[in-house]
Amino acid sequence: MACRLMTFSALCVLLGFLVAPSATEKAGIRTSVSKGINGGVSCAVCSVVVALVEQTSEFHNESVATAMARLCSYLPEPDKYQKFCKQFVDAIGPVLIKLLAEDASPDRACHALGICTTDPGRQPCVSIPEPSLLADFEERVKRGREIVIRHDRHGIFQAGINICDLPGIKEICKLIDNIFDNHVPALDEDHDSFSTYPTLRGSAWRGKDCDDSNPQRHPGAVPVDDDASSDSNCNGIYGTDPKTKVAYEKELCAGTEPRGVAVLGDSISAHFHLPENWFDATQISAAAFKHLDFIVENEIDWPEMSSATGLGFNNWTEVIQGPVDSVYMRLRERNRCNHKDYQNIAVNGARSGSMDSGIMESLARNQETDRPMVVIYALVGNDVCNGHVDDTFAHMTTPQQMRANVLRTLEYLDTRLPKNSTVFLVGLADGRVLYDSLSHRIHPIGRFWNRFTYSQFYDYFNCLQVTPCCGWMNSNSTVRNMTTQRAIELSAQLQDVAAKNQTYYNHFNVHYMANPINKAIEVWNAKGGQTWQLLEPVDGFHSNQYGQALTAQIIWEVAEKLVPGVFGPTNPNNQRIAQLFGDQGAYF
Length: 588
Ligand SMILES: *[C@@H]1O[C@H](CO)[C@@H](O)[C@H](O)[C@H]1NC(C)=O
Ligand SMILES: *[C@@H]1O[C@H](CO)[C@@H](O)[C@H](O)[C@H]1NC(C)=O
Ligand SMILES: *[C@@H]1O[C@H](CO)[C@@H](O)[C@H](O)[C@H]1NC(C)=O
Ligand SMILES: *[C@@H]1O[C@H](CO)[C@@H](O)[C@H](O)[C@H]1NC(C)=O
Ligand SMILES: *[C@@H]1O[C@H](CO)[C@@H](O)[C@H](O)[C@H]1NC(C)=O
Ligand SMILES: *[C@@H]1O[C@H](CO)[C@@H](O)[C@H](O)[C@H]1NC(C)=O
Ligand SMILES: [Ca+2]
Ligand SMILES: [Ca+2]
Ligand SMILES: [Ca+2]
Prior knowledge:
This protein is 39% helix and 5% strand. The protein is mainly alpha-helical and 588 residues long. The chain has three domains: 8-179, no CATH class; 224-255, no CATH class; 260-566, 3-Layer(aba) Sandwich (Rossmann fold), CATH 3.40.50. Strands 2-1-3-4-5 form a five-stranded parallel beta sheet, with helices on both faces. The radius of gyration is 25 Å and the shape is globular. Bound molecules: 2-acetamido-2-deoxy-beta-D-glucopyranose (6 copies) and calcium ion (3 copies). One of its GO terms (biological process) is sphingolipid metabolic process. Pfam families: Lipase_GDSL, Saposin.
């Protein structure tokens, strides 16, 4: 949920995602992941990579050199990821092989390489622990350092080197920097904020544009001339009934009160998901990276499978499993005239302040000529996930700030949303569930060695001061409780604004709903499920596909109870629409 709520977690780290703070700054999003101490993000990436290489080599009983070549061979595109990987291995391989032959600890190796440091007055940060890791730590690092210097022919491994300066990684950092810069589609000829391309904020995020040369024609539009000759609102319904001579849009949709759905959210709503089999030496394979471009160009988010805007199919089963359910799917099932009317305006790391300054403006709705919307405002954790272990409470959003931020967003929405819209303010999550359900489990990064619990994983990121949410990803239960306390105070502001300003706005009513995840967990537990089964294994922070699907069900049920009729009536023509127009046009 948070550091860029959850954006920046371990794997992100691995790929150098954390190193793209410039993009997030430009977009007005303050990232809560700082550069950190003791090498910070660079150090975390190094430890994860070295641990993966070592475990791969042990698992396959092969040399470190062969293991590195194996890992590169799993990556797609010889001219892109595979090439970057080989450049990286060319630079680091010879040194790393010599180093690991002497000392197998990832932590000491990364110190010897100069990527991890022990800053003045600090203790070294320890990732995957081994017995007596810290005994003779400095002495052994010093011996390792001598090996590095002896074999570092190009003088790459200066002390304190940033991972993004390394050959191969440099290119990946640049790539990511560009992708994370935008909240509107990169490919959009008519600039109506709807695209024909799936990724880069395209149709995985918002309905596919059915006419990319005309900005008036887009998902959610009230159809022009009842779409008698062509589709102007992209729902696949157009033409004229030859029997009645009435346009199909009129015959099948008029009076059915069509509407769309949008979510203004963070990485939970964007559905951040790092494939577990990228990190686990026993599972990693070429299949795990088959969709790498798609995943990276979607910011490691899965809006097309999310609780708000999931589309109902899974073409990526190599890296994501579980049921798909969403508010959009239910809204479409309710009334097929709503086909393609979805917008996922969620950004990793978003919080109430960044929503106001750069994110909410990317919502595309014409107040006069588009249909109403159900808007879900769900910033469920980043407001309490800022700062690092020494100062997190000083960096949390205050109740007063939360109130001011949400009021600004609502004022803005009143200038954008068509009449008859509805806004739901969703409360913050109680992130204590993370520690409570995961702390003793083994993280995928240490799976083959069968060490590295989530508790250690959280502490490691805290030590480096690069955690996405030190308040909850923390082994100190007082800190976790205090973080929840603030989350409750911020939710109370949302609740109060919704109660007092429920009918204040001209274009929508506003309602509050408690965060659905706790209810989802209850439902899951009642069916005999374990809570950790709803959580993302790699980042130990977000809800996974099962959690997303359950969340959709709960949001839907709660919303209908709060506001009967909020999703409109069932369209009696649904079956005819299906017969006449089939799937109404593909999403991608
Ligand atoms: C690993 O490989 C070496 C030689 O390459 C062999 O001697 C050894 O038996 C192998 N170990 C296992 C567990 O397969
Ligand atoms: C994606 O999934 C849908 C529905 O399961 C299927 O019809 C389609 O063929 C899949 N596309 C690809 C490229 O796998
Ligand atoms: C709003 O909804 C009501 C019925 O729920 C409908 O009668 C009215 O025409 C709608 N107004 C607009 C502007 O769509
Ligand atoms: C836990 O955090 C609280 C609040 O910051 C602090 O007072 C306490 O000393 C910490 N406990 C431990 C065991 O570190
Ligand atoms: C934190 O809150 C839980 C639940 O309310 C409670 O059981 C626990 O004792 C609290 N821990 C601390 C250190 O206050
Ligand atoms: C309702 O919204 C208006 C406009 O943003 C704001 O001035 C007012 O304080 C709000 N009322 C409450 C009780 O929050
Ligand atoms: Ca367009
Ligand atoms: Ca268009
Ligand atoms: Ca149409």
